[in-house]
Each structure stands twice: as structure tokens, then as C-alpha cells.
Design brief:
264 residues; alpha/beta; 2-enoyl-CoA Hydratase, Chain A, domain 1; Lyase 2-enoyl-coa Hydratase, Chain  A, domain 2; 2 domains; six-stranded mixed β-sheet; four-stranded mixed β-sheet; globular; binds octanoyl-coenzyme A
Length: 264
């Protein structure tokens, strides 16, 4: 795919946005390619995705400012919807998605990272929503996800003042879960993804759905959502075998084994 490379290593899929001449900025073609690559993910075998950017300077330097510069109001709204539809698809993608933020994550770059389930970054990562400096609002979910992920007050400060933040500050406010030297970032993302991929896939998917759906409703409805998803895991091979393995292990520690979950 032109601007998005997709590779599979074991049960982990790695999507790399590759538009190095524009620091991986998102134009319509990149967004289309990303959507097409998501279509290719084989959910039978791939259990976790990593999203990263090419090179060691930029994850994604935002939406393409050249493409946006002449849009009409209607075209602006349509471009916002195009990005939002794809970012919602990432957010709701059945398997977990880890953003490995390897440099600038500005505007649409921070927004795509926030649509992933987990964010880790390199020490040189810079996050920000510079849109008000360009005369627009964040348009790919930034006002919504940043306020939910950090806090409304912190999101407003970052967005209103067009202030970029460094990796350490992103970690302090909870925007990323961990910071690594650049060369250790992808290996760390792969290690985390492989660990997730080794768990019972039906259960991991259900956890993602429960957390995402539950955050949209009050606690009573949230626990109902969890109950249904919890119940849905029973009678699966993975639930039976996961629990039987624990019980065998209790009888005889020599019987400890790693369960090969089968996604069924
Ligand atoms: N769009 C298009 N091209 C870009 C972008 C971008 N967002 N970012 C960088 N580039 C290009 C530069 O134009 C340059 O191209 P060229 O070599 O042809 O001149 C190349 O990438 C390298 O960039 P720089 O020379 O500027 O590199 P520096 O190291 O000097 O600076 C920065 C790096 C600080 C990242 C700088 O490039 C920069 O500030 N980029 C713009 C960052 C930005 O403002 N991003 C937010 C964009 S707005 C947005 O994302 C809104 C999302 C919602 C949209 C909703 C639509 C309705």
C-alpha cells in the first residue's frame, strides 16, 4: 500500500505510515491507504496491532496543511469526517492497537495516537494540538479524546495555548504509558504486543469493548455491559482450557504450561 506499510510478525501486525518527505503528515491518500490496510488485517491470526511512523523524527506531523489550506467550510467538515471515521475505526478495531510514537505527534498525529488503545513513545517525541495557531480547531477528535484522556483543564490549556509538550510531560499527564530511547521503542512495542497476543483473544477483545463502551455510559450501564461480555467468554475453548490449566497446575506444579489460546 502506497503510504502505509503493513507487516506481520507472528500474531502482531505492524502498520507504518510512510510519507517521510512530509514528516508522515496525513493527506487524503494516506488516510485512504490506512483504511485499506485495516481491511487487510486477518483477525483470525493477528491479535494485536502496532501503529508507528517511518524514520526517527516524526510519528505523524499532523493533517496535511497544504491540502487543508484552500478547503471550503463544507470541504473542511468532510475532511474532518473522513479522518474521524478512520480514527473511530481504529478506536473500535476488534483487537488492541498500540501507538509507538517515534517523534512529532502534532495535530492529527496526536489525534491518531489517541484513537489507539495504548500509547508509548520515544524520548524525542513531541505532542501537541497546534490547530488554533492555524486558524482551525482540532478536527480529528482532538478536543474530545484529549479531554477524556488527560483532563478537561489540561486539554484546554494545551489546545487553547497551542503549546507542544515533550515526552516526559506527556508521561506525567498520562497521555503516554511509557517513554523509551528511540532505538528501544519498537522492540518495547513488539514485546508488549506479543504479550497481549499471547492472552485469550476473545477475552482481550471483550475487555477492549467493555472499557470503550463502558466509558460512554453511567456505571450501572457500564457494569451491565461488562456482565454481558464476561458471560460471552464462557463455554469457549479458551476459557475452558485457561481455567483447566490453572487447576492442573494447582494439583501438580510440574504440569505448568503456557496455554496456546485458539481464539475459539
Ligand atoms: N502538513 C504538510 N506538510 C508538512 C506538515 C503538515 N502537517 N508537517 C511537516 N510538513 C512538511 C514540511 O512542509 C516540509 O516539507 P518541504 O521539505 O517540502 O518544505 C517537511 O514536512 C519537513 O518539515 P520542516 O522543514 O518544517 O521540518 P522541521 O524539522 O523544521 O519542523 C515541525 C518540524 C515542527 C513538525 C514542522 O514541520 C511543523 O510545525 N509542521 C506542522 C505541524 C502542525 O501544525 N501540525 C498540525 C496540522 S493541523 C492538523 O493536524 C488538524 C487535524 C484535523 C484536521 C481536520 C480537518 C478539517
Amino acid at each position: 500500500m502506497g503510504f502505509v506499510n503493513y507487516e506481520v510478525e507472528g500474531a502482531v501486525g505492524i502498520l507504518t505510515i510512510e510519507r517521510p518527505r512530509a514528516l508522515n503528515a496525513l493527506n487524503s491518500e494516506v488516510l485512504d491507504d490506512l483504511n485499506a490496510v485495516l481491511d487487510q488485517v486477518d483477525l483470525e491470526t493477528v491479535r494485536c496491532l502496532i501503529l508507528t511512523g517511518s524514520g526517527d523524527k516524526s510519528f505523524v506531523a499532523g493533517a496535511d496543511i497544504g491540502e487543508m489550506s484552500t478547503l471550503t467550510k463544507a470541504e473542511g467538515e468532510a475532511f474532518g469526517k473522513k479522518g474521524n471515521d478512520i480514527f473511530l475505526r481504529i478506536e473500535k478495531f476488534p483487537i488492541p492497537v498500540i501507538a509507538a510514537v517515534n517523534g512529532f505527534a502534532l495535530g492529527g498525529g496526536n489525534e491518531i495516537a489517541m484513537s489507539c488503545d495504548i500509547r508509548i513513545c520515544s524520548e524525542n517525541a513531541i505532542f501537541g494540538q497546534p490547530e488554533v495557531g492555524l486558524g482551525i480547531t482540532p478536527g480529528f477528535g482532538g478536543t474530545q479524546r484529549l479531554a477524556r484522556l488527560v483532563s478537561p483543564g489540561m486539554a484546554k490549556q494545551i489546545i487553547f495555548s497551542n503549546s507542544n509538550i515533550k515526552a516526559a510531560e506527556a508521561y506525567r499527564i498520562g497521555l503516554v504509558n511509557a517513554v523509551y530511547p528511540q532505538e528501544e521503542l519498537l522492540p518495547a512495542a513488539k514485546k508488549l504486543a506479543a504479550r497481549i497476543a499471547a492472552q485469550a483473544p476473545i477475552a482481550v477483545r471483550a475487555c477492549k469493548e467493555a472499557i470503550n463502551e463502558g466509558l460512554q455510559v453511567d456505571i450501572e450501564k457500564g457494569v451491565e455491559i461488562e456482565e454481558k461480555l464476561f458471560g460471552s467468554c464462557f463455554e469457549s475453548y479458551d476459557q475452558r482450557e485457561g481455567m483447566a490449566n490453572f487447576l492442573r497446575k494447582k494439583d501438580d506444579p510440574n504440569k505448568v504450561k503456557v496455554v496456546a489460546f485458539q481464539n475459539k
